[in-house]
Amino acid sequence: MTNLIQTNITKLQKITKYILMGLIVVVALKYIPDNELKNKEIIMIGATSSISYAILDMISPAIKISKGNTKTANSC
After folding, report:
1. Which of 38, 42, 43, 67 has the most CB atoms around its CB within 10 Å?
2. Which of 21, 27, 12 is nearest to 47 (CA)?
3. DSSP 8-class letter at 70
4. CB 25 within 8 Å of CB 45
5. What's residue 73's pLDDT?
């Protein structure tokens, strides 16, 4: 039961992180540019950045970089 609660808390933390990232982008797009953007464009860019961040966050744990005695193409 506690494992299920921890899983739900972890999911909630991740969702909160993605929403916060999207909101940061929206605020930056609202106040930084000299040329005003339409609200619809700002929301679309914020949503796209949030979704992109979520996808990268889900994929990145699957990428593992290990240190070892690997040879590179330039080594002799």
Report:
1. 42
2. 21
3. P
4. yes
5. 53
